[in-house]
Write a structure and sequence with these properties.
Structural class: alpha/beta
Strand order of the largest sheet: 1-2-3-4-5-17-18
Order of helices and strands: EHEHHEEHEHEEEHEHEHEHEEEHEEHEE
Helix content: 25-40%
Radius of gyration: 22 Å
Strand content: 15-25%
Number of strands: 18
Distance between the termini: 30 Å
Shape: elongated
Largest sheet: 7 strands, mixed
Length: about 425
């Protein structure tokens, strides 16, 4: 059983009904308490636990706090969350439980919820958005989008194979040969690359596409074929910070023609493409779906931002008139909550340690540190993130242009949380 000082760290449930992850697991919380106990005796910290699958994990039951949510959050200095707290307008008023002046760390979705960011500022909350981490080597151990996307790509292949209804590898039997499944991955970021690797391990013939030329070598290193039209002259398909960017209309037309010819022969298609702060780009249109074979499967990882397929129904599984199954699960990382929570907790621990002066045993935030600058949304009652505060007379920068603001994962054609 985890031994802890009840006055040091309190636990409350995530309010989002679809969230199965937590901000800690037993091992990471114990390490947090052991390494920072002197600091935390002076600072009240609240961590969240999963509200969907915690009953499946007996370890959670060993040290869940008995206090109610409001009581646990009262007086908290630091609140660790998975999903951003909802406002009263949206659903349960989770934000009102966070004390004014507290530090709030989690996945804040600042581009999708600008009003929420404003609400933080009004409550004088110092909010840090983990998905906005700058893409630098020093921040890799804190990169929640990479850790979550990795398992998202794996789960997408498992789900696709489970719904395909046939075997994945080539099998030779006395009764004849079973041909391997053909898997096409659209978007070669962290989730996409893991999907490629997983499908290859399962024996499938794998191909992949991405708008970024830099992805070609990574895809081919995993044993997959790279499918891509020639980009416009001088165009790498990404911004200076490595983000996948929206391509020209001519490029989109040529890409659609190439994909249309390729996709009709595929058995499983996994789409992962996202542009930060924008609706998911359409990669698979109605004609492409109509051309696919009876029994084939599309797994749309981008469903939370509308989906990459025109026939995606976010949060649902359905079969088209021509027998194509389209899977559009929301929040895939929650379906592997034990592992994704452990990784997320480790990311948070590494991030918090950045704020602690262990010699002085106190919170000591370097407000000039580029990781802090890149993740801090609000401070001293103001919105301070450079991507969210437009220059005078200008509108806020589009997400894909806000390179210095952070990243979605190591190779940013997807967000995977």
């Amino acid at each position: 059983m985890l031994q802890r000082n009840e006055d040091v760290a309190e636990r409350v449930p995530e309010l989002a009904s679809y969230e199965g992850r937590a901000t800690e697991d037993p091992e990471t919380l114990l390490e947090l308490l052991e390494t920072m106990e002197e600091v935390l005796r002076e600072v009240s910290m609240v961590v969240s636990y999963a509200n969907l699958r915690s009953s499946q994990d007996t370890r959670n039951q060993e040290y869940q706090a008995q206090a109610g949510r409001a009581e646990a959050l009262a007086g908290a200095d630091i609140v660790l969350k998975v999903q951003r707290p909802l406002t009263k307008v949206e659903s349960d008023d989770g934000l009102s439980d966070v004390p004014e002046g507290a530090m709030l760390i989690g996945l804040q979705n600042p581009y999708g919820d600008p009003s929420g960011v404003e609400a933080y500022a009004k409550r004088n909350i110092t909010a840090f958005s983990m998905e906005m981490l700058p893409r630098i080597s020093r921040a890799q151990s804190m990169d929640v989008l990479s850790s979550q996307s990795n398992l998202t790509g794996y789960k997408a292949v498992i789900d696709g194979a489970a719904n395909y209804g046939r075997g994945m590898p080539m099998l030779m039997t006395a009764a004849g040969r079973i041909n391997p499944a053909k898997v096409f991955v659209m978007g070669a970021g962290v989730a996409g690359l893991q999907a490629i690797a997983t499908a290859r391990r399962m024996g499938a013939i794998v191909s992949a596409t991405d708008v970024r030329m830099a992805a070609k070598e990574e895809v081919e290193s995993l044993g997959a074929a790279f499918v891509m039209v020639e980009p416009d002259e001088g165009d790498t398909g990404q911004t200076a910070g490595g983000y996948a960017k929206e391509m020209s209309e001519d490029y989109k037309r040529r890409q659609a023609e190439l994909v249309a010819g390729h996709i009709r022969d595929q058995d499983i298609v996994i789409t992962t493409a996202l542009i930060p702060g924008r609706p998911a780009p359409v990669l698979v249109n109605d004609d492409m779906v109509a051309s696919m074979k009876l029994g084939s499967v599309i797994v749309d990882i981008a469903a939370e931002q509308g989906g990459n397929c025109t026939q995606t129904k976010p949060g649902e599984k359905h079969t088209t008139d021509n027998g194509v199954t389209i899977l559009a699960e929301l929040n895939l990382p929650s379906q592997l909550a034990a592992d994704t929570s452990a990784l997320y907790a480790r990311n948070l621990l590494n991030f918090i340690e950045l704020m602690v002066d262990k010699d002085e045993k106190k919170i000591a935030i370097d407000w000039e540190d580029e990781i802090i600058v890149g993740t801090c949304l609000t401070r001293d009652g103001k919105v301070v993130h450079p991507a969210l505060v437009p220059a005078e007379g200008a509108s806020a920068a589009p997400a894909e242009e806000a390179d210095e603001a952070g990243g979605d994962d190591d190779t940013p054609s997807e967000l995977g949380v």
